[in-house]
Design brief:
InterPro entries: GHMP_kinase_C_dom, GHMP_kinase_C_sf, GHMP_kinase_N_dom, IspE, Ribosomal_Su5_D2-typ_SF, Ribsml_uS5_D2-typ_fold_subgr. Strands 1, 2, 3, 4, 5 and 6 form a six-stranded mixed sheet that branches. This protein is α+β, with helices and mostly antiparallel strands and about 300 residues long. The longest helix has 16 residues. It has two domains: about 170 residues, Ribosomal Protein S5, domain 2 (2-Layer Sandwich), CATH 3.30.230.10; about 120 residues, Alpha-Beta Plaits. It is built from ten helices and ten strands.
Length: about 300
């Protein structure tokens, strides 16, 4: 990895928004071991950021609060951004398209293994950014295939818009009228193993995610709908990681509309009535636990 360059030295930038599981229902398990999920997913305006520039040789560098935690993986070539680059290059080259050397810089702002799709969001942003840098025009199906090879969450992150995902995450339906929510993200900076959380599930055939026959409209109706849903991974994650319960309680003490864990944890979120209340809550949480991660943000609305 080379010396980190300034952002202005790069040709283009691609955001990698945090993926927020507003609800996650575990509905079954396939013969190959993959769990079947129903998910209501939104994306935050806060996340990682990738920078791209033409280079004499392929290069990769890191910065950001959590960048050093990925250094060993990057040195070994075991980073999802690098895997995304290699898979996209392979697909493009097989179609006779040119993919010159590129320097990719990852600004890692999200905690590692935190249930908000950081690595998947980075891989998806790498695909979007390289498609632009290399001026590629590949069939949509090819890009989706590459994304799914990188991980079940990557196709969702490729969209980075409100959606419902089913199956292992590959069956996606966008929600164009979905509203934006002021939000505070929190993480105790304790890693939680996703396989361990799934192993602790008391049952794997829970009721599916069902929306009202009339699609909710506006923040209020969607909040009522989300409150009636759940995250089936939260109870087992809490049993493994006691900090999740403490974190959830801290967020709850700031009077959010809703508090829930995202994905397999340990990130929890609070949805607040407005941006000002979310800012005050984040500041209060920082004061109480300066050693933990808290971030005020808002989710990205659907593109009606």
């Amino acid at each position: 990895m080379s010396t980190i360059l300034a952002a202005g030295d790069f040709d283009l930038t691609e955001e990698a928004p945090a993926k927020i599981n507003l609800a996650l229902h575990v509905t079954g398990r396939r013969a190959d071991g993959y769990h079947l999920l129903d998910m209501l997913v939104s994306f935050a305006r806060h996340g990682d950021r990738l920078f791209f520039r033409a280079s004499a040789d392929d290069d990769f560098s890191l910065s950001g609060r959590f960048g050093t935690l990925l250094s060993a993986d990057a040195e070994a070539g075991d980073n999802l951004v690098l895997k995304a680059r290699d898979l996209l290059r392979q697909a493009a080259n097989s179609s006779g398209l040119d993919t010159p050397a590129v320097h990719i810089h990852l600004e890692k702002n999200l905690p590692i293994a935190s249930g908000i799709g950081g690595g998947s969001a980075d891989a998806a942003a790498a695909l979007r950014g390289l498609m632009r840098l290399w001026r590629l025009s590949l069939p949509e199906g090819t890009l989706k295939t590459i994304a799914l090879k990188l991980g079940a969450d990557v196709p969702m992150c490729l969209s980075s818009r409100p959606l419902i995902a089913r199956g292992i995450g590959e069956a996606i339906g966008l929600l164009p009228s979905f509203p934006s929510f002021p939000m505070v993200l929190g993480n105790p900076l304790v890693g939680v193993s996703t396989p361990d959380v799934f192993r602790q599930l008391s049952r794997k055939d829970n009721p599916p995610l069902l929306l009202p026959s009339q699609m909710p409209q506006g923040q209020g109706e969607w909040i009522d709908t989300i409150k009636a849903l759940r995250n089936d991974l939260e109870p087992p994650a809490r049993s493994i990681c006691g900090e999740i319960g403490v974190l959830s309680g801290l967020i709850e003490s700031e009077s959010p509309i809703l508090t829930r864990m995202s994905g397999s944890g340990a990130t929890c979120f609070g949805i607040f009535a407005d941006a000002e209340r979310a800012k005050k809550a984040a500041a209060s949480l920082h004061r109480q636990r300066p050693d933990w991660y808290f971030q005020v943000t808002e989710t990205i609305a659907g593109e009606a």
